[in-house]
User: Fold this.
Amino acid sequence: MNHSIIRSALFVPASRPERIPKALAVGADAVIVDLEDAVQESLKVQARGNLDSFLRDNPEARLLVRINAPEHAEHAADIELCGRHPGVIGVLLPKVESAAQVATVAACGKPVWPIIESAAGLLELADIARASGVERLSFGALDLGLDLGLSSGSAAAERMLDQARYALLLHSRSAGLAAPLDSVFPAIEDRDGLARTARDARDMGFDGLLCIHPTQVEVIHRALHPADEELAWARRVMAAANSGEGVFVVDGQMVDAPVLGRARRLLLRAGESPA
Assistant:
C-alpha cells in the first residue's frame, strides 16, 4: 500500500478535459478526474470518453478517478475504464456502504479510496476499511450531513461531523491504511477559513484535504507545512537519535519512541528525509 502523505487531492471534471493538464500542473499531491458529481447526467458517457482519450494520448499522466456510485448505470463501465489504463493509480468510490461494493471496484486491480457519505456507510466503516484493496478513506461532509439531517455550516453540525472524522481516523489506523483525507471546503474565496480547516485536519491526524479549485492547493500546502521552529526541533531530535540510545533528552524534554515518531512525521510533511 502507498502510505505517502497526500496534502491535497484536487478534483477536475471529466466533462472538461482541457482542464486535466492544468490540474496536473498545479502542484497538488494528487489529481482526481471526476466522473460523478461534477458531471451532469446527460454528459456521463461523453465524460468517460474524454478521460479515455486523455489517458491514451498522455500515457505518462498519473491520476485518480472518482467513478459513479455503485447503484449508478455507468458504474461498471467506469470500473472497466480504470482497469484498462496504467495511468489510473487509484479509484475513488463514492457513496460506499459495504465491503462488497469495495471488492467490485478492487477487482480492476487499482487501489480504492472509499468515500463515506451516509449513515449506512458509517455503520459499515470497520468492514469497509478492512476490505482488500483499500488504500485510504475520505468522506463527503455535505452528503453525510444531508443524510443525517444536519444544518450545514453550523457549529452543531461540525461537532457531529467530527464524530465521523474520528471514526475514519480510528478505522484507518486499525486497518493499517494511509491517513484519511478530510472533505472538501466549499467556500472557494474563503482562504482564511480553508487554512483553519486544513490546520484542524492536520491536528486531528488527517493527511490533508480533498479540494475543488486549483487556488486551494497552495493555501492547503502552506497551512499544513510545519513551522520553522517545529522543523528545527525535529532535526535536533533526529540528530540526537543517532546516538543509539533508546531514551534521550533534547531541549530539556525526554525523547522516546512517540516523540521520535512525531519528529519523523514533521520532517516527512515538510518533504525532508527523517533518516
Remarks:
- The mean pLDDT is 94.
